[in-house]
Amino acid sequence: MKEFDMADERRFAGIEAGGTKFVCALATADGRTLARERIGTADPALTLSQTLEFFGRAGREHGAPTAAGIASFGPLDLDPASPAYGRIVSTPKPGWSDVNILAAVRDGLGVPTRIDTDVNAAAMAEGRHGAAKGCHTHAYVTVGTGIGVGLVAGGRSLIARGHAEMGHIPVPRAPGDDFTGVCSYHGDCLEGMASGPAMAARWGCPAQDLVPDHPAWAMQAHYVAALCCTLIYTVRPDRIVIGGGVFEQPSLHAHVRRMLEPMLAGYGLSPHERDLHTLIVAPGLVETPPGLLGALELARQAADG
Ligand code: ADP
Ligand code: ZN
């Protein structure tokens, strides 16, 4: 007898909640976007009501969502046991401290809803659709205004409570580097030494203005390779995807591989970890924002329980 192929008619709501805009999309289960809207981040009550109105309209036209996912700016309370679960915690963004985006969306749409950081969501999207497709465990690193690391295992965030702050790990100094660092908490942590603003402060111009053979890139690669070394020896990722504005510099991934090799010194590596070309890669998702795709992935997880 021929097997009956049930089409998955579910609709998912995805929200990429950023400090300047909320990007909302209603999508099919196979990831096709049916409606999309960009809402400027204003005061929370207005932004959240516009978000819910969008999903109301889109749902009437294309079918109501069965679940929702939110990839949010932070810091967020991500401890499911906390009474403040789903809240934004003390952000400098006016009005948004203590706003519970998760509760507003879940109660407003009346569907199961999940929230995670924008970086973790982008990491999940790279795993499902992008450069880490097929990997069991992977890391997604973004080097831009800050440095964030998302860790995914089996399609879900590896850290179940709270979020990792790997951008702030201490790092060994590059030989001859006496820069004090720009992190307002730690000075010369990874973010303090290697974020976009750290590069601008160190070299006196934005990173994108530095010529390709500038010594800045080798130094930059040293710090990011130190992060990769830590990730490899702790998390054992099948892949490390590195993106963000600073990694738009085309030669930087190759620089990181070159710096990483002597740091690892061949110690304790499985065969796949020895191939740094498949271990350290650029993002695969460039057109649809990975945070939005990650939000839709969170919606799928919310629906599946
Ligand atoms: P954000 O982290 O704010 O979301 P980005 O990931 O775009 O934004 O990162 C912004 C940082 O990336 C800035 O510090 C900028 O100087 C740097 N940047 C942007 N484009 C490039 C480039 N082509 N090469 C190197 N650095 C870049
Ligand atoms: Zn720091």
TrEMBL record:
<dbReference type="InterPro" id="IPR043129">
    <property type="entry name" value="ATPase_NBD"/>
</dbReference>
<keyword id="KW-0460">Magnesium</keyword>
<keyword id="KW-0479">Metal-binding</keyword>
<keyword id="KW-0862">Zinc</keyword>
<protein>
    <recommendedName>
        <fullName>fructokinase</fullName>
        <ecNumber>2.7.1.4</ecNumber>
    </recommendedName>
</protein>
<dbReference type="InterPro" id="IPR051804">
    <property type="entry name" value="Carb_Metab_Reg_Kinase/Isom"/>
</dbReference>
<dbReference type="Pfam" id="PF00480">
    <property type="entry name" value="ROK"/>
</dbReference>
<dbReference type="InterPro" id="IPR000600">
    <property type="entry name" value="ROK"/>
</dbReference>
